[in-house]
Amino acid sequence: MKPNKMRAYDIFGNIALVKFQRGTGANEKRRFAQRIISGNKAIKTVLEKSGKFKGRLRKQETKWIAGEKTKEVLYHENGCVFRFNIDKTYFSQRLSNERKEIAGKIKKGSEVLVMFAGVGPYPIVIAKNSDAKIIYSNEINKEANKYAQMNIEMNKMKNRVVLYEGDIKKVVPKTKQKYDYIVMPRPQLRESFLKEAFYLSKKGTIIFYYDFCKEDEKQKIIDKIQNEAKQSRKKIKILRIKNAGEIAPYKMRVRVDFKVL
Fold it and tell me: Within this chain, do residues 64 and 155 fall inside the same structural domain, yes or no?
C-alpha cells in the first residue's frame, strides 16, 4: 500500500484501487487518479474502494474513477498469472509471500486441499512451486470458480489442480478422501470450519489455519483449535503460530500450522 497524504492505494496488475478520505471531491479524485495512470504505464484503470469485503463470498464495491472502464484484473505472482473481477471475487496480493511459503512446505507426491480458494491463487501457486501430486480447490462463490477454471487453464495446471465447487459443509459428506495438507485461508467468519477440516484429515495431515485477532489474543485461537480437535476426537501438535499481516490497527491475520497425530 502506498500512502499519499490522506490517500492510499493498492495495485492489482492493471488496476489501482484507491481509498479516499471522506469528503474528497470528485475533481480531486480524478486528478489523483490521472497522476497514478501517468506515473505508471502498467496501470490502465483507477477505481475507488467504496465498500468493505462482505460475507463468506468476500465481495466488495468499487467505483470507476479514470482510465479504461473495466473491473477485470490481470495479475502476475510467483510465476503465475491470474484473471479476476475485483468486485465479484476476492483476491489479496498481500498474501503472495504466504502462498509461496506454504508451497515450499508441501512434500513431493502430496494431495492438498485448499478451502476458501477463491479464483485459485493458493492451489495454482502450490502447483507451480511444489511437487504436490494434486491440489483440490474448494470455493462456494460460483463467479470465483469460473475465474479459477480460467486461471487453471492459463497456467497449464489442468492435470494438477481440480475444482471442488460448492459449500464445503455439503462437499464433506460426499467424500471419503483424506488429505496430506489442508490450507484454510478463511475470511473473517464466526465459524472456524475446523470440524470439516478434521473430518478430511488423517494421521500426519498438516493444516495451515488462518484467523484474525489482536496481538494479545493468539492464545484464544490456539485454545479454539485444541477444543475443536478434542470435539472431533483428534490429537494435534501445534507446529507454528505466525503473524501473516496486519489488517487493521492492532488487528492481524495469524496463521497456525498444526499436525494431526
Answer: no
